[in-house]
Design a protein that fits this description.
Elements: E1 6-8, E2 25-27, H1 55-60, E3 72-74, E4 78-79, H2 84-92, H3 94-115, H4 120-126, H5 129-146, H6 156-174, H7 176-181, H8 187-223, H9 229-252, H10 255-259, H11 267-289, E5 290-291, E6 294-297, H12 310-320, H13 324-358, H14 362-365, H15 370-399, H16 417-426, H17 430-446, H18 454-463, H19 465-486, E7 500-503, E8 521-524, H20 550-579, H21 604-624
Antiparallel strand pairs: 1-2, 3-6, 4-5, 7-8
Length: 629
Amino acid sequence: MADDLAVRSHSITRSSSLIAPSSSRISLPREDTGGLYGWDPNDWDHESSAGHGGASDSRSDDRDDDPLKMSTWAGQPRVEGSSETVRMVLLTCVSIGITFTWGVEMTYCTPYLLSLGLSKGQTSLVWVAGPLSGLIVQPIIGVIADESTSKWGRRRPIIAIGSVIVALSLLALGFTKEIVGSFVSDPETARALTIMMAVLSLYSVDFSINGVMSCARSLVVDTLPIHKQQTGAAWASRMNSLGHIIGYAMGALDLVQLFGPRLGDSQFKQLTIIAALGMLFTSAITCWAVSERILISVRHDPRRAQGRFKVVRQIYSTLLSLPPRIRGICNAVFWSWIGWFPFIIYSSTWVGETYFRYDVSPNARDSNDALGDMGRIGSMALTVYSTVSFISAWILPALIQAPEDETFTHRPPASLAPFIETFNKVKPDLLTAWIASNILFALAMFFTPFATSFRFATVIVAFCGIPWCVSQWAPVTFLGVEVNKLSGSSDPAAVNGAATTTTAPYRRLSNDTTNSIEMLHLEHGPSSTLEAGTAGEGAGGGHGSTGELSGIYFGIYNIYVTIPQFLSTVMSGAVFALLEPGKSPELATEAHPSEHSDPTGPNAIAVCMFFGALSSLVAAWSTRKLRGL
């Protein structure tokens, strides 16, 4: 690639809906390693011409008749920290709190609901909260955040507000009986209200944490350039795994014995308090460390939906016109999540039930805290699983070729160059790793109905840490790359530069996926309107991606994640109704034995995970089809 490859736009007609500004030139940056993310901001070459001399000029030139008016921005994204590792940790720190909370919910909420007297079929209906919240919250929050002109940025305000709601909902979930008991004295009424409040609190946790998750993903995409999207996704995966490890490890400990009754008289109560504090702490770190570009005005596009149902129509129109590669990514994720959902929701309960049915001693069977015992057994298995996933998140990125490796040249030390060049010829690409992860997960799930020991069940769960790591990292990486291309970004300007107005419309100049160039017009210059948002000096400069559309595309991505969860919930409910229609014999100890399910039959959860394996094979086939897109 030439150092100063320039693309000059030609005259175009006003009927074009996506245009590159006339009389503009952008030079691709040289591939030396300078600046925060590897590209020196001084390498950007912009042509000075009348009408393009500064940000003020960019808004006063003759564009009133253009069908697409440009968005204007103040400042550039930046992250605090003295090194790239520190900045990546701070950028993705909120993921620890998110997955810690998910870990507590996944490990203890199913046993908790069963202990309140719900059957497995009823519990599966409660878990519709997860996909329902993802289907509604993430796309809507994505669109709202994309167009937010808050002085605090587009993503951080939602992360902060959502984290507070998550914390309050967790406390309500953990202390439901005490809250209801302070208002109601009748036992039957209190029991019904306790179940109702527990379900509502669970829904509140799921809805609010999905908003936080949506903006946390988009924040990474907005902040990092294309060639760092895999690095950012890998770091998010590492933080996810670390959050799971901490959450599951805490769940495996006897917290009541460790801390006493000060934080609550049960394991579940103490975990909800710790999860609430962890959610607030990690989100505060990310919100403090990251400075976002400030959206001054949203570009005018007559094709955008207007009116009361603007958000819904915009999501719908974008969904119908997805680029082929993004649609292919979403299709692969769709089939993958039909298989993953039963594992995520029920794996800890499955390990705990396997222990109680095949391994527990007669004395332990009469425990006063069966919920805590089952939760600790399940948490131990998931701790091992998360440790495997965490180690994989560190090792696999070094062994797998990133999607942009062919277009971004890394220059290793001369002494290591021969070894690295040889290794690069044989290491698999990320798409191959994603295909393999779907196949490995399917193989693991095929063995679940045959597990008659909690140790074997633990091995199966732990093995799934490897495919889970790849499944959380690969699709987000590919989607991040595609979204940045659609935003017209190859790499924007430096983080610690002057106030910038960025315009993101593009037109593809080549059909070659490895050599395609997107038009990006960056205009620098003094502007009294924008200077207030200019990033100040400090640790951490570099290049961010435009990421203007990341919210809506990640929201649509999440639709493809949540719809299969509905399908999986329906499948699980049917299996539970057929194989285990009664209450849990291990947890619903207050129920009459005639109301219990037969514990000697096949485990219904294992059967659900077995069916999920079939869907994972379809996911592997769908992932393979991406090579042709």
